[in-house]
Amino acid sequence: MVLSEECDIIFRLKAILEFACQLDNPNGAQSQSTISKTFQDLQSKVSSKNIVFTVCNSPLLIWPNTGFQSSVESLTEASACGDILQYIESDDGGSKKSSKKREKKKSGPTVVNMKLLFEVTEPAGNEAPSLIQVSTQQHCVKMPLPLDCVLSVNTDESLSTVCTGLVKAINKQLADMEEVVLQYRKGSSFLVPQPFHFQLPEPAGLTTVIYSAGVPDSQLQAVREDLHRKFKLPSDRPYLRRANAFHFPDAAYKDGYLRNPHIHLNPPNLEDAKLYLVQGVYSYHHYMQDRVDDDGWGCAYRSLQTICSWFQQQGYVETAVPTHTQIQQALVDVGDKEPRFVGSRQWIGSIEVQVVLNQLLGVTSKIMFVSQGSELATKGRELANHFQTEGTPVMIGGGVLAHTILGVAWSETSGEIRFLILDPHYTGGEDLQTITDKGWCGWKGPEFWDQNAYYNLCLPQRPKII
Amino acid sequence: MGRSYFVDEAVEQYLGGLQPAPGSCVTGLLAGQSSPQRDFVVLAVQTPYRESEGQPKASRGVSPLDDIDVEWVTEHAKQVSRMLPGGLCILGLFLVTPPELAKDAQNSLKKLIFAMEKYITKGRLWELSEEDVTDRVTLHICSKTKKTVCKTFDVKDPKSSAKPADWKYQTGVSSSWPMLTCSVEVDLLIPLTGSSSDNTDKCMKDGLGRWAKQIEAAYCLINGRQALDDSELISGQKKNLKTAHRQTLPARIFVSDEQSELDERSSALVRVCSGSIRVRGVVHCRAYIHNNKPKARHAAQAIKRDIINAVCSRVEMFLEDLLINEGSHKGLCSGQQALPRRVFAPMPISGLSVCDYMFPDESTADVAERLKEMLDCETPEEDIDTSLESKQLFSAVSGSETTDSHSDDSTKHATSEVQAENPKIQKASQYYAGVAVAAGIALLATATSLLYLNE
Questions:
Q1: B 256-285 residues with CB below 8 A of A?
Q2: Transmembrane stretches, by residue range (chain B) (predicted)?
């Protein structure tokens, strides 16, 4: 968790270009060259002098292909691209430089959103207006190409480098889209090519891959295998499923759940201790959410939901996080519970969590048993290993409570340990400040556990897939 | 509480000079610009004389008011509105009657104003926004006393009643109005589904409509500044009506291809088309904006509407012309045909300009004749500016078309032959003496197209 002092910027250029062509015979040999020609025309259009970049929420316009011109005099091609930030109005009216409440930890790179526009005035020629009619029967194909290019740079990179980079990126994306469109075309049936961005380990960095709309991840296994080889990615965990797509820091999560509240906490002050934390992204599920009043009985269900959200967001499953009813039904389906279990307010434990993870997600889990809560303090090595290799959230049930363990701070030398706990018993709203201040997500010592009760821990294992 | 109309003195002179025959009525149009606070009238034109068959109804005991040819008045209004550059539109009607008909005149005016508004807006490709003024003015003038009665009707509400309005004469109402200009490159491909001419009309309307929405949503710079918001168009300028200098402000328009109905798709939209029509070329556009603290976005709206009108009016005129001469769209043969060119001429006295569309086989004399008939003004031919749009057509033979027709070469070869004949076919109308010659050529060209272009 190294804090970087540098302010990285991600320039994100979006545009929807219309792909339109006429095909005499969609199954004929000529059609492929017509399609390629149409993409080439789009590439020329994007390299022409009429294109303009606008920076969203600012008065800034940049003409990248006319030897760099900008609508703001003080921004020239040599200006540092970080200078753009002062011209951007953030949603609350202030400029981005003077941010309101600083969060405890850095929230990641700044995103500068841009759009592509085409000038229709100041034409190069002065051709007379005319009407041209073609009377042959044709298949008329129209498709939106949702261009989405990213460029990750340091703030002191020059504007002209950024603009040249973006123009190159658009051209490359059009070429990639052409390849994907031709690959999945069947006669006159075309699938829209969609860009997805992935934050891959260096040196690849922020990378864009084009997938065809309507082709599910399950059918793209071979494509992913190729890309894993190309980018030298491990072959046993997913990096390039649609769910793994990079989440831009300025985008809100539409479902309203908090993501990774733990990153806003300061680590415990433990001498000689290392941190072993959950990897990736999970959503915080707790009492009273989704208009389900499970206060007093639903804690294990909520912990299970948190775990399911992890598997969904790391790309292992496409199924939505299950509801209490769906969880109960799954247990009935495998014969673990009687049918009247569905709709009841009965508790579940780690074993049931293991069963449901298997039944609904196809995920296997290890169960760890401790006969006394005081023993948990000695499980440092096992838990550290778990978070290092699997990195999944752990459900712990015992006494009368269930919790989620998101990590440990453990010293190999002294054996001292702290547990990072996500508490599903919280009944309030999605208020990060309250949740971190009041310890609903927080570091706890070994005294947190009921020293005399026995506990079962469910440690979910990552499936070895890509 | 009612609206205030600031009217140019030239209009006062024109209205005063009208000499209706005793006992009869004169109708006419009033044109200018509306703004939320006040309205400006810069032009008045009486309805042109129409040769009608039979005796005037008045001699058969019917009131001259009932004799008003509503269709003719509204048609005149439509023709004149095509001649007005952006920012200007038909604001209302005037009616001159003898004193005994003054009372009934109000009813006639109400009928006329609603009919006119309905006819002009039919088929228009841009919608009125919340802020557009929907009051139209009716002016009644007594032929004996010259007394004027000015009222307005809200044409959005068919049940609205007449509201009183102020009618004030001023000199040089529009002398300092800035003029926005731009040249716009157009290149639209409109697929045609079905083969009947009704279908062609609908497809053209849909295709042009989509383009019009792009223009309306486009980003606009006027004189180098953003024209989005409520900021003033020209900040820090002192209102100086005495200056003869009219500012010219260049406008720049930037479009994006985003079309919301396409956005959510996961596959392409494919239709089998019987053909396509491509509209391309560079059009010249103009708009005027009043100088009573105009807002930048109203100016942007005015020039955008002119851009839309500039393309749609001439396509409409071209298709109407074909209909008259050929009887159906079968006359729209394959290949390239020049659209009418936009030309500008000075408006009587106010210093603003009007425009007209000149067919390829027409001359400035024809334009001058039309200006006389429609706008009731003499325009010397040398004052008609034909230089703003060019005559140079895009070459269909060497140009690239995105089709994969196998018969490409032969089609294009035949096209260029047919092309040479086409200009004569298009306007084989009353402007030509040699109708027989034209008909003969038309026959030859149709035969050629049937031979080479049918598959």
A1: 256-259, 262-263, 265-283
A2: 431-453
- Burial of residue A188 (CB within 10 Å: 0-12, 13-18, 19+) is middle
> What ipTM goes with this model?
0.80
The fold of B4-170 is Cytidine Deaminase; domain 2 (3.40.140)
Residues of A with catalytic function: 299, 423, 425
A235: closest CA of chain B, how far (Å): 30
Q: Among residues A255, A156, A153, A166, which one has the least CA distance to residue A206?
A: A153
- CA torsion angle for B156, B160, B161, B167 (degrees, to 10)? -20
User: What is the band of A78 on the pLDDT scale with cuts at 50, 70, 90?
Assistant: confident
In whole angstroms, give the CA distance from residue B92 to residue B69: 17
Q: Which amino acid is at A5?
A: E
Contacts of A191 in chain B (CB under 8 A): 266-268
Residue type, B142: C
The yes-or-no verdict on residue B451 having pLDDT over 70 is no
Tokens for A120? 């229709």
Q: Which helix (DSSP H) or strand (DSSP E) does residue B113 occupy? A: helix B102-121
Return the ∠ at Cα A194 (arms to A190 and A199), rounded to 5°. Answer: 155
**Shortest alpha-carbon distance between residue A50 and chain B (Å):** 9
CA gap B33, A369 in Å, rounded: 84
Least CB-CB distance to B276: which of A71, A118, A140? A140
Give me the residue from B224, B251, B279 closest to A131, CB to CB. Answer: B279
Residues of B whose CB is below 8 A from A188: 270
The pLDDT tens digits for B243-258 are 557 889 999 999 987 6
CA B85 to chain centre: 8
Higher pLDDT, A331 or B101: A331
Neighbour-count burial for B191-210, b at 16+ CB within 10 Å, e otherwise? bbbeeebeebeebbbebbeb
CB contact A70 to B (< 8 Å): no
Are A214 and B267 an interchain contact pair (Cβ–Cβ within 8 Å)?
yes
A391 closest CA partner among A262, A287, A269, A245: A262
**Which residue of chain B has the CA closest to A29?**
B404
Share of chain A above pLDDT 90, in %: 73
Q: What is the mean pLDDT of residues A165-170?
A: 95
Lowest mean pLDDT among A111-125, A241-255, A438-452, B241-255: B241-255
In this predicted structure, what is the pLDDT of residue A249?
86
- Let me know how long chain A is: 466
Contact yes or no for A192 and B332 at CB 8 A: no
In chain B, residues with a C-beta closer than 8 Å to the C-beta of A117 are 218-219, 254-256
Q: Is the pLDDT of residue B415 over 80?
A: no
Which residues, numbered 10 to 69 in chain A, qualify as contacts with chain B under a Cβ-Cβ cut-off of 8 Å?
15-26, 28, 30-31, 33-34, 37-38, 41, 52, 54, 59, 61
A104 pLDDT band, cuts 50/70/90, is: very low
C-alpha to C-alpha distance for A68 and A56, rounded to whole angstroms = 18
Task: Report CA B324 to chain centroid distance, whole Å.
Answer: 19
In this prediction, residue A337 has a pLDDT band, given cuts at 50, 70 and 90, of very high
A272: left (phi over 0), alpha (psi -120 to 50) or beta: left
Say whether residue B55 is in contact with chain A using an 8 A CB cutoff: no
Instruction: Round to whole Å and give the CA distance between A445 and B136.
Output: 80
Calculate mean pLDDT across residues A260-270. 94
Residue B242's pLDDT is 46
CA distance B359 to B342: 9
Looking at chain A from residue 191 to 230, which residues have their Cβ under 8 Å from any Cβ of chain B?
Answer: 191-192, 213-214
Say what the pTM is: 0.81
Subunit contact A33:B218, Cβ cutoff 8 A:
no
pLDDT beyond 80 at B264: no
B377 touches chain A (CB under 8 A): no
